[in-house]
Each structure stands twice: as structure tokens, then as C-alpha cells.
Amino acid sequence: MHKLPSDAGFIPSTENLRAFRNALGSFATGVTLVTIAGPEGPMGFVANSFSSLSIDPPLVMWAPAKSAHRFPYYAKAKHFAIHVLGADQGALVNHFHRGSGSFDTVAHGLTAEGVPLLTQALARFECVQYAVHEGGDHLIVVGEVTRIAAQDGAPLVFAKGQFGQFAPHAR
């Protein structure tokens, strides 16, 4: 076993939040759009904090930041959909993350509960809220999956503060 040098790490604190975020950015994630029926119509929230949680029962989770201006609506939403975005859907990220978030120009349908469903996504998980848990400056939302749609394609990937594509290694 190799011994690490004494300067090989740091203790996360308020003085080194950027270094902590940069280290977390080494873990590549997929990119999702979480949708709900908002008080004035469909709403979308870009998130990379998505994960499978359980096969039986079928559970997934995501974690919205409490500082997000739409957070109260997502924390209360009993029905939501998580859309795994494809490599060609980067414009949706800009539209919902930095833009108005309006669905006026986004192809979608609605569930019986009013949740917007994108007509194009690599995978879509329609969920009913199963549980919520405190998670520091985020809320951990667990959803029970009630319906799935999936198709082939390359995922949109986020790592080191940038969007890109997954490139498999040759075998």
C-alpha cells in the first residue's frame, strides 16, 4: 500500500467551498429535467442529482437546492417526472436553467395530474412522491416510479462544470 503525502487532501469548510465543488465535479453525472404541474402551469427544473434507489419497490431520488427560486413548488409536488436528457438536448438545459423555463416552445404532453412530459428524452420516470428527507442545503425527494418510457441514444453528461457526451472505451 502506498502512503499518501500529508498535503494530499483537505477538510471541507466555508473557506474552501470552491475546492470542494471542484472535487465533486470529478464525478460525471447525467443531466435531467424534473417537471411538475406548477400553480400557473408546467414547470421544469434542471438537476444532476438524480439516482436510482430501489428496484422493489421502484424508487428513484433527486435533490433540489433549497436556494432555488422554484424550490417550494418542487418540495410540495406530489407528482413529478424525471427526464434523462440526451446529448443533443443541451439547449433545454439553457432554456430551463437560465431562461424563463416556459413550456411554450417545448414539445410536451400532460399527465392526468398536469405534469408536463417531454416528447423527447432518453428516459422518463413518472413518479409519485414517496418520501422527503433533509439533506443540508438540499431536500432529498424520493419518488415511486409509476411509469417509464425509454429509448436508445447518447446521454448528456455533466462533469467539471461542463456539458458533454459519454464516449465508451474500446474493448
What's the N-to-C terminus distance? 29 Å
CATH class equals Mainly Beta
The profile of the biggest β sheet is: 7 strands, antiparallel
Number of domains: 1
| Low-pLDDT windows of residues | none
Topology pattern, helix = H, strand = E? HEEEEEHEHEEEEEE
What shape does the CA trace take? globular
CATH superfamily: Electron Transport, Fmn-binding Protein, Chain A
Mean pLDDT: 91
Annotation, overall tally of beta strands? 12
Describe the 3D structure.
The protein has 171 residues and is mostly beta strands. It has one domain: Pnp Oxidase, Chain A (Roll). The chain is built from three helices and twelve strands. The protein has a seven-stranded antiparallel beta sheet. β9 and β10 form a beta hairpin.
SSE topology sketch:
Blueprint: H1 17-24, E1 29-30, E2 32-38, E3 41-47, E4 51-54, E5 59-62, H2 71-76, E6 79-84, H3 90-97, E7 108-110, E8 116-118, E9 123-135, E10 138-150, E11 156-159, E12 162-165
Antiparallel strand pairs: 1-11, 2-3, 2-6, 4-5, 5-10, 6-9, 7-8, 9-10, 11-12
Give the gist of this structure:
With 171 residues, the chain is mainly beta.
Descriptive tags:
single chain, 171 residues, mainly beta, Pnp Oxidase, Chain A, seven-stranded antiparallel β-sheet, three-stranded antiparallel β-sheet, 12 strands, 41% strand
